[in-house]
Q: What sequence folds into this?
């Protein structure tokens, strides 16, 4: 089966990505904008499926979670309270010869890796993007593009408690864009300046935080496995005490073995009561919680699983990529989980013969009401299977001349290439069952 892609293979992936419409360089016709990417017709479906899978697992399938969609622009005081104005910075050095800039904590040598020149002293560089609200551009109108979605949740804590009557332990989750003016973005969509996050803030009684942290770490780790990432390419890494963020008591990173090495997909942090306490202090509002059971009032502690949509999408995609020998040819196939694949079913009439076309189109209409379905009648059936394998379509349905007589079609499984023939009347039900339970 599949393996870890060697570093050099990233070029292959980037080229497949462009050729088939997964990811394009942003503003490409103008020469592109550094480290910004656009998701094409297949990429957008893959990414939506990743977000849906997360939303289902973190919110819909649990009783103790609700969703939220907070604005990107927030009151500037939010970022003072959260500590981002003061702390959200990386150490920046500049080469005195070529003027290139680097994050000093990521450098392996004391000299510039580009020209060998000497560096300036490191200075702190704040990663928040800022802009102005309204037509006046002065500091009193300055606002930030959020560098994390989490703060939108903390400032709505009381609104959610009052409107949903949720009892602790419970959590609030959201998916949305975040922005960081990274000094050294790169590795395709791994590190960009505009990206999407999937974050949950789970509010617990102080003292129960450590066991909740471990429960979330396990749940989140298992989620990546259940959607197809192989265990040997995933690992947990606990933060060293000197590595912890200013708000965190303990943190575990879930890391994926990317072609360039291990990289973080998601961090699960024990944020204690830092955020609610700070927002209470800065806003003057009461953000404590009265616990009916223990008759105590306290500021809840928070467990935060915080993952990147783009990084998860990239990891699912890379881990699914394989090249298999097929006679004299190579079959490029994405073994994407059937619920993540951008196209779920391909409807392939054996030929363009008119008698087949109307039956095939009828079945296509039926399928597309239930599944993301693609119709393809161009070129040989073998080529069409390869085209679908390359984008990870789990099921191909073939309509042939026998279909006209026996009202049956053939379903082909992408991974095993097994085929079964079943009545059209059972097609939707059979596919739904296979999508739910596998082939
Ligand atoms: P890193 O150490 O890689 O910079 P981080 O620890 O700063 O990441 P967090 O603040 O924990 O990241 O953000 C939560 C998640 O958001 C990360 O696990 C990652 O998946 C995603 N993320 C953070 N920064 C970026 C970025 N620049 N581009 C894409 N995704 C990002």
A:
């Amino acid at each position: 089966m599949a393996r870890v892609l060697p570093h050099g293979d990233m070029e292959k992936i980037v080229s497949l990505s462009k050729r088939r419409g997964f990811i394009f360089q942003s503003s490409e016709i103008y020469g592109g904008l550094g480290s910004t990417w656009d998701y094409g017709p297949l990429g957008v479906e893959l990414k939506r499926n990743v977000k849906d899978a997360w939303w289902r697992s973190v919110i819909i399938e649990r009783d103790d979670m609700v969703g939220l969609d907070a604005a990107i622009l927030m009151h500037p005081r939010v970022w003072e309270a959260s500590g981002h104005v003061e702390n959200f910075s990386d150490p920046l050095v500049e080469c005195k010869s070529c003027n290139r800039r680097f994050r000093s904590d990521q450098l392996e040598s004391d000299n510039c890796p580009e020209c060998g020149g000497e560096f300036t002293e490191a200075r702190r560089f704040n990663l928040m993007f800022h802009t102005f609200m309204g037509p006046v551009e002065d500091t009193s109108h300055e606002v930030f593009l959020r560098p994390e979605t989490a703060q939108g949740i903390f400032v709505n804590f009381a609104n959610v408690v009052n409107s949903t009557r949720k009892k602790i332990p419970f959590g609030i989750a959201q998916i949305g864009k975040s922005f960081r003016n990274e000094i050294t973005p790169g590795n395709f969509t791994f590190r960009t300046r505009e990206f999407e996050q999937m974050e949950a803030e789970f509010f617990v009684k102080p003292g129960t935080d450590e066991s909740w942290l471990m429960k979330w770490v396990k749940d989140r780790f298992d989620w990546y496995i259940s959607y197809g990432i192989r265990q040997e390419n995933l690992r947990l890494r606990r933060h060293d005490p000197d590595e912890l963020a200013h708000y965190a008591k303990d943190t575990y990173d879930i890391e994926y073995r990317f072609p360039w090495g291990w990289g973080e997909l998601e961090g699960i942090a024990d944020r204690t009561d830092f955020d609610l306490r700070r927002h209470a202090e800065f806003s003057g509002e009461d953000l404590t919680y009265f616990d009916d059971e223990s008759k105590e009032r306290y500021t809840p502690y928070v467990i935060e699983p915080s993952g990147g949509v783009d990084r998860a999408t990239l990891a699912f995609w890379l881990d699914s990529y394989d090249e298999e020998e097929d006679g004299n040819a190579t079959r490029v196939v994405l073994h994407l989980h059937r619920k993540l694949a951008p196209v779920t079913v391909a409807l392939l009439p054996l030929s363009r013969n008119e008698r087949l076309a109307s039956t095939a189109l009828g079945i296509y209409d039926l399928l597309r009401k239930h599944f993301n379905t693609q119709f393809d009648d161009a070129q040989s059936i073998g080529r069409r299977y390869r085209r679908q394998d390359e984008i990870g379509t789990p099921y191909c349905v073939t309509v042939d001349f026998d279909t006209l007589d026996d009202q049956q079609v053939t379903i082909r499984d992408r991974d095993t290439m097994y085929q079964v023939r079943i009545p059209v009347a059972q097609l939707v039900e059979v596919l739904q069952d296979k999508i739910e339970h596998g082939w």
About this structure: The pocket of adenosine-5'-triphosphate is lined by residues 148, 180, 182, 191-192, 195, 197, 264-267, 306-308, 310-311 (CB under 6 Å).
